C-alpha cells in the first residue's frame, strides 16, 4: 500500500471497485434522509493543480515541499498496517488506545479543540449550520483531511461525512466520477454549488464563506506538515483501510456523531466509522460551541463522543460501547 501526500491532499492508491454507480461527471449521488439524490454543482475548484494520483504535475515548489512527508508516509504505511493488528473489531487494550489517542491530541493542540464562536456576541457568531449540509469526503488517517476537520471544529460547522478508506466500496468511486481523481479531502457545498479538492483551499473557503470575517487560528494551515502526521503514526494507521467484514450496503439513514476533532475518544470512534465506511452526520461540539446545549438536551451531559443511530434507535455515550455497537451492528456477520 502506498500513501501519496501533498501539502494539501492525500491519496491512498487502490484499484477501483468494479461496482457501478448512477453517476455522471457533472453530478454526484448523496444521501438525503435515506434517499439517494443527485447534486449538480455550478463549478469545481481546487482540482487543477494535480497533487496526488490521477492529476497532472503540480508546481515545482509544491512538489518539493511535499517530497519529505511523501517519502516518510510511503515508507511507514506498510508498518502501520502491520502494527494495527488487522481486525479492528478484535478486543483491544483500551489503556493503550486511550494513551496513543491522547498523545495524538497533544501533538495537535490547540487546533481542533475549540470553537471560535466562544465569546462572540450573537451578531458575530459563526453560522453553525448552512441551510444545506456540507458534504466532506475524507478518511480519518489523512493529515490533510484532519486539517479540514480541525477548521470545521473552529467554525462550529456540522457536515455530512462520507468516509473513503482504502478498499472503499462506494465513496471513493463517487469522488473519482464527480471530481475526476481520487484525492482527499473533497468538499461539496450545495449552498454555493461548488466542489473542491485541496485542504488549504477548502479551509480558506470555509472561513471566507462561514467565518464572519474571521481567519483560521494561528498555525492551523502551516502546522499540518509538521505534526499533522503524528496521529496517523501513533494510531498505527487506524481509520485508513476498509474492514473486510464491513457491510457493503450503507444504512438507510445516516448515523449522527457529536464530536470535536481533537477529542481522543471521538477520534477512536471516527476511525471505526471510517473502517466500516459508514456515512454520518458530524455535529462538532468544541469548547464554546453553540451546539453544546443541544448535546446536553439530548444526552443529559456535555461529553463526547455521543452516537445516535436512527436506524436502530440506539443512543450511546461511551466510546468503548460505541465501538462494540458499530462492529456488531454493521458487519456482514451481524444477525
From TrEMBL:
GO cellular component: chloroplast
Compositionally skewed regions (Gly residues) per UniProt: 45-59
Alphabetical list of CDD domains matching this protein: GST_N_2GST_N
Region annotation Disordered: where it falls in the sequence: 41-65
Pfam families, per database record: GST_N_3 (PF13417)
All residue ranges annotated as the GST N-terminal domain in the record: 132-214, 253-334
SUPFAM superfamilies reported in the protein's UniProt record: Thioredoxin-like (SSF52833)
Top-rank taxon, per record: Eukaryota
Cross-referenced InterPro entries: Glutathione_S-Trfase (IPR040079), Glutathione_S-Trfase_N (IPR004045), Thioredoxin-like_sf (IPR036249)
Name of this chain's protein: GST N-terminal domain-containing protein
Organism for this UniProt entry: Turnera subulata
